[in-house]
Amino acid sequence: MFNKQVNYFKKKLFGVQCMIWDLEFKRFKTLYVREQIRQEYDGLRSKLEILKTQIASEKDKSSLSVDEFKRLEDTQVTLDKDIERKKQQMAGLDTEINGAKPSAENPESHQGINETIEALRELQNVTKAYIKDL
Q: N or C, where is the chain less crowded by C-beta within 10 Å?
């Protein structure tokens, strides 16, 4: 009986280690996606700055037709919306990785990947101590 119990908890310990590896991979993948979104965000911001400069210069000398100027302003609005969407995506990925504490806007807390990994490492330590006691 004693040997079966030790073997069971050793298998459980290996399962916990596999869960940690899976979560570390998920964290890596999430950070990779976040970096891609950040690069797109930076590109959109630079396009917006160029567009704002162009709009400001066109207001001064007005070499474009009214339709072309309105098209530039519409493009600016579209870029603003895209930039805001990218910000929200990055914030969501940050919450997935780091978790979220309860706040006024979000009354429920969210356990992130990092917190889950730490909890599993603590479970590993407890399981190892339990196996030693057997």
A: N
Q: What is the mean pLDDT of the chain?
A: 91
CA distance 11 to 19: 12
Q: What is the number of domains present in the chain?
A: 1
Q: How many CB atoms lie within 10 A of CB 65?
A: 9
Q: What are phi and psi of 112, to 5 degrees?
A: -85, 175
Task: Please state, in angstroms and rounded to a whole number, the distance separating the CA atoms of residues 107 and 49.
Answer: 36
Q: Which domain holds residue 34?
A: 2-100+108-133
- Model confidence at 95: pLDDT above 80: yes
pTM above 0.70, yes or no: yes
75-to-50, 51, 92, 109 alpha-carbon distances in Å: 12, 8, 26, 37
Q: CA-CA distance, 123 to 125, in Å (whole number)?
A: 5
According to the per-residue pLDDT averaged within each range, which of 3-7, 12-16, 70-74, 95-99 is highest? Answer: 12-16
Handedness of CA 90, 96, 98, 103 (dihedral sign): positive
3-state secondary structure of 6: helix
CA distance 95 to 124: 25
